[in-house]
Amino acid sequence: MMRFKRILLSAAALLPLLGGHVLAADLGSATYPQDVPAFVPVEQASGWYLRGDVAYNFKSDVKANVDYVGGTAPADYEMKRGFSPFLGVGYQFNDYLRGDVTVGYSQRDTTYFDTTAKLWEGMVNAYVDLGKYYGITPYVGGGVGIANVNYDFVGPVYSGLTSSDTNRFAWALMAGVAVDVTPNLKLDLGYRYSDINGADLYKAGDVTVRDNGIKTHQLRAGVRFSTW
């Protein structure tokens, strides 16, 4: 009997040691999740967007001349200040590159005997976004396209006459900033310079009226809405 008691006491004394070894073995075999990386790449912005802009034409110069028998007379003039609407659809390829197609219309009086000019513009544009800073993205861009120009003449020789439509090559340079309003909506503020090639406007007998190009400076405000 005494011998059996001594065996029980010895076994009881070994239990803490055995438990420590078992616990250590269990801890050694435990698995832990891998460390979470400090930087997780963010998917680049991309997708279609719609845009609408209003341009304020604050300066437009037209180099022109009137050819007649015996000579040429300069007829340089300006288009009066006014607003032009633009609509377009575009695609954001990544965080830094996007492009769009825009259509705009302008009807503006000129300083040439109050003649009225009507202009349609269709442009293909590309932009480079220069990084986002506190929700503001500066950008630069350029575009090429076609401008349709028509004049309603007022003057001593050809008053009341309308020029034929002329389709001309046009190009533009842009710069501005986009401001995040919501994740899908941006406010776009910028400057645009456009240059439309020259063309003959009107011929009557030996008289030819020609403009040699329309150069316009604009301040623009608009919105871009990401749709997909």
From TrEMBL:
Phosphoprotein among keywords: no
Keyword annotations: Signal
Signal peptide: 1-24
Domain (Outer membrane protein beta-barrel): residue spans on this chain: 38-223
Record flagged with keyword Signal: yes
Gene3D superfamilies, sorted: 2.40.160.20
Pfam families according to UniProt: OMP_b-brl
Protein name: Opacity protein-like surface antigen
Organism encoding this protein: Phyllobacterium myrsinacearum
